[in-house]
Amino acid sequence: MINGKDIYDVLAAIIPLYVAMILAYGSVRWWKIFTPDQCSGINRFVAVFAVPLLGFHFISTNDPYAMNYHFIAADSLQKVVILFALFIWHVFSKRGSLEWVITLFSLSTLPNTLVMGIPLLKAMYGDFSGNLMVQIVVMQSVIWYTLMLFMFEYRGAKLLIGEQFPETAASITSFRVESDVISLNGREPLQADAEIGDDGKLHVIVRRSSASSIISSYNKGILQSNNMTPRASNLTGVEIYSVQSSREPTPRASSFNQSDFYAMFASKTASPKHGYTNSYGGDVFSLQSSKGPTPRTSNFEEEMSKIGSNKKNRGGNNASSVSKGNVEKEIEIEDGSKNMEDGEKKSQMPPASVMTRLILIMVWRKLIRNPNTYASLIGLIWSLVSFRWNIQMPSIVKGSISILSDAGLGMAMFSLGLFMALQPKIIACGKSVATFSMAVRFLTGPAVIAATSIAIGLRGVLLHVAIVQAALPQGIVPFVFAKEYNLHPDILSTAVIFGMLVALPITILYYVLLGV
């Protein structure tokens, strides 16, 4: 039976984390202590040093030979069941899409276990539950976040191939990605060059594109000479953001429109704001697309001559009317997206082995540049060696790590508070979408893991721990991925911020109800 002292112990463990978050929020919003650039530096320190060393500390001090495999199996089965259900929905439903599969999987299965889960569950159920949370952290870092990267890169590759090779994708037999290309997330302009090898097969080379900066400079000069209002231009399907951007669109407070949410339940076609949905001969892309299409350079000079002739023959009023017409076309495209499914054709894709190799290359390049990857793997290896042969870490090394890892928890919450303060809205995606995402986060995840835990055979306190950890607030890493790949970042942002605010009463409610 839960008593008042138990509730107080939980609050005593969690409230200090919220104090750090509120101090950071007030430092930016109320007291103006930190500028956005200074916040960026703090967040960088947290991402590169504090959180990886915090994760290393927990993983390296956890006995891997005493893992509770039934608990791990229940948690893993929850994720597999949800992912399988989402893929079935994607394949057999006209309303399904890969974008929503990724987002819903993130919302329902990936909580903030490291920062919130370990101290909260320790306060509720004792030290053994903290060890269980560390085991969940290991699985998240090694398996589930890697799977997320795989899905994000698959989506990026699919969009790139569909835009560059709409008719010949099935003929591609290999990809070669140049070493300076880190990801297919669309944040940097890429070009894909096809060539016929000596074997007569089609080979593709993916490299960075230099055309974007050239076009942007040319476009900027035209706008300045005509004294026109900066606007987005469409040039051979390339999304050009003039004046305010060089290589990628200027970050927006909210790139998610509620119509995209409703479109999920009305059409399988991706919203123009989230994919490479195009029309008008395949060359005009949505003005506000969240993931800009990859530039093409084949008819660059031809398009430049067209702009030059238009510059001579059209005045400022005509330019304004063209801009207005483009906006009207964008609205028409978005409003008509629900009726596109009848004429939708299944796009061709390269063989599965070719796609798999491409995605594995890109995921590997992302992983080797992520400090959390090294922290998790080195921590796991050390724990295997340390607990197997009872080897202690040298005191100098241990002290050097602990001086930063001890600050990791507070700095992580402080960084989260800075992030909240820099957002124009706590609920950036609309109330209906926020309500839906909170229901997925705090109801669907716990319900599914309750079923999988019972199926595995968990009972008593272990079952309670599994359910409460599934009701933790949204993990930060899925939001980082969503922002990097520009896939529903506003939904994940709201899930992180608003989820942190409501998580404490919700988890305590679960704790009380399960303890009755």
UniProtKB/TrEMBL annotation:
Superkingdom of origin organism: Eukaryota
Keywords: Auxin signaling pathway, Membrane, Transmembrane, Transmembrane helix, Transport
Transmembrane domains' residue ranges: 12-30, 42-59, 71-89, 101-120, 132-152, 403-422, 434-456, 462-482, 494-513
Any single biological process term in GO: auxin-activated signaling pathway
GO CC field: endoplasmic reticulum; plasma membrane
Ranges annotated as biased composition (Basic and acidic residues): 326-347
Compositionally biased spans, kind Polar residues: 287-298, 315-324
Localisation per UniProt entry: Membrane
Positions of region (Disordered): 287-349
Location (main, coarse): membrane
Database matches in NCBIfam families: 2a69 (TIGR00946)
Family: Belongs to the auxin efflux carrier (TC 2.A.69.1) family.
Function: May act as a component of the auxin efflux carrier.
Entry protein name: Auxin efflux carrier component
Species assigned in the record: Solanum pinnatisectum (tansyleaf nightshade)
